Amino acid sequence: MAEETLSRLLREALAAHELSEETLSALASSLLWRFGRAASEGEAGPVVVRVGFAKSARRFAELPRLKSVSDAEVEAAAQEGSLRVEWVGER
C-alpha cells in the first residue's frame, strides 16, 4: 500500500473516532493485529483486520482462522471501503 494512502486512511479513521496519532502510538505496543480473509463454506469472505490488547491473545486463537491475504488485497479492500475491523477481547 502506498505510504500516502495508508497515512490518509489512518488520519481519517483516527478523526472519525476522535483519536490522536499520539494515542495510537501509545497503544501500539500493547496491541495484537491479524490480517486475513474470512472464509465460510469454501467461499472467500471479506478482508478482515482483527485487533485487540495483547492480554486477549487467547481469544484470537479461539476465533475462526483467517486465510492469508496479500498487501495488495488489503490495500484494495481499504480503498473500496470493504475492509472489516473486528475488536477482539473486552472493550
Verbal overview:
InterPro entries: DUF3248. It holds the Pfam family DUF3248. It is a single chain. This protein has 91 residues and is an alpha+beta fold. The chain has one domain: Ubiquitin-like (UB roll), CATH 3.10.20. The protein has four helices and three strands. A three-stranded mixed beta sheet has the order 1-2-3, covered by helices on one side. The protein is flat.
Order of helices and strands: HHEEHHE
Radius of gyration: 14 Å
SS strand fraction: 25-35%
How would you describe the shape?
Answer: flat
CATH architecture label name: Roll
Pfam families: DUF3248
Tag the structure with descriptive keywords:
alpha+beta, 3 strands, DUF3248, Ubiquitin-like (UB roll), 42% helix, 4 helices, three-stranded mixed β-sheet, 91 residues, flat
Topology:
Layout: H1 3-16, H2 21-28, E1 31-40, E2 43-53, H3 57-62, H4 71-80, E3 84-87
Parallel strand pairs: 2-3
Antiparallel strand pairs: 1-2
Pfam families: DUF3248
InterPro entries: DUF3248
Quick rundown:
The protein is of the alpha+beta class and 91 residues long. The protein contains four helices and three strands; from the N terminus they run ααββααβ. β1 and β2 form a beta hairpin.
